[in-house]
Amino acid sequence: MKATQQLKDEHEGIKIMLSIMEKISNDLEKGKDMNMEHYAKIIEFIKGFADKCHHGKEEDILFPAMINHGIPKEGGPIAVMLNEHQLGRGYIKSLSRAFEEFKDGNKLAINNIISSSMNYVELLRNHIEKENNVLFMLADKALNETEQSKIFDAFEKLEVEKIGIGKHEEYHHLLKELKKVFIYIKKEVYYENKIDFNYFIGNDVCLTC
What we know:
Helix content is about 80%, strand content about 0%. The chain is an all-alpha fold.
């Protein structure tokens, strides 16, 4: 598998979580109660998997490899992606702070939870489209098969270093659990978008298979 394909596959898992966050935000706006345990796990996912692991693979491994092949760090797609990673971290920080305030009894913090969550969802959805349709295409042109294979192996090593052995499977299980609670995805959605349905069989969501 190409290293860039692994990142695209991870994007599909992240997009599932973004849909879950959007659904919860809509429910909260309607006055529904928050499941605190679920939300704590969602924040852990976006911190641990989406940012530390996924963005870590890009920032620590893929982007430097692209820069070594003459793709500029400044004034191009890489600079845009790095800036958006920082924006996303700002939204995560705001969301985490509001969630802690809400847990401590500040009911007004729910407004900041909703706004930070939806800002993050909007940013990441657009970010993923840019990476899939621009950045990764540049990477595929610049990096040959051998280089992609080396980067893929480095991704696997980084994942263990960043989040630990077995954590990937925990995130896999969390997505499966929350998807059943909050969203139902029809097969037609995947066929219309030309996504391999074997990647999502039943309720089994894989991040990088």
